[in-house]
Amino acid sequence: MKTTIAILFSLTLGIATGYAQTLKIASPDWDEALALSQLAANLLEEEFGYTVEVNRLGASASFKAVASGEQDLFLNAWLPFTHADYYKEYGVRCERLGTAYRRAETGLAVPTYTKVRRIAMLNKHTDEFGGTITGIEADAGMTQKTKEVIKLYGLNYKIDSSSTAQMLKSVEEAIQNKEPILFHAWKPHWMFAKYDIKMLSDDNRIFQKEGIRKLARPGFKKDHKKAAQMLEKIALTEKQFNNLLLTIHESQKDRKAAVQQWIEANPKLVKIWTKRGFSLF
Known about the structure:
The protein is an alpha/beta fold. It has helices at residues 2-17, 31-48, 59-68, 84-90, 126-129, 141-153, 164-176, 191-194, 220-223, 225-233, 238-250, 255-265, 267-274, and strands at 22-27, 51-56, 73-79, 95-111, 132-135, 158-161, 183-187, 197-199, 210-216.
């Protein structure tokens, strides 16, 4: 009889904590998206015993997969601007788990040793920057926004589009040589933790700040109550997020191990997220 009770208790505990269940997290192939997804994955595995898959999907596909229940979580919805169309189509079917980061932004940046502070000042510094904006991929949303900026501000600049990796390499080389460079930037990103750079003020608000929201499939909160409560608590400041991204970027380990290294280096913050009372239901 005692053995039977013990087995039933263990099974009930396993169900309550999510033990031996698999959760699927949809994530675009972006540094901040993969970092946040892996952070959640490590904590879900460690705290509740889940097996967690991080599946690389585009933003639109991630919204669609979570709304349909094919994926359990999408933790990198940029709202209310960048992903507005996807949210309008799929978001109403998703459950919201709060905001992971409140001041996400894209824009144009320069090293702090340059005197430019605002986009409106750039035409006075055309020669300094060679009339060039060092950019990322030509089809990126940020590139399209930059074209709007050039037109609205009447800038005498052209966009030199390349890969994100090549842009970051150009930024690093310029800063090492203390040369002027005007480039695409976004927060959160490890570049703000590694380099002394600043985002230029946008008086016309073409580049607007927004939040990185956490979404779950329909019924997730009911099916995984404790996990949902923990996920709702996960939130990062700019310094914390950039430090997480830099830890991953500079680590010789894989992403999962690098994230675990960051978790162990930030016990007080993690405790706030994972602190909970014991309950079978």
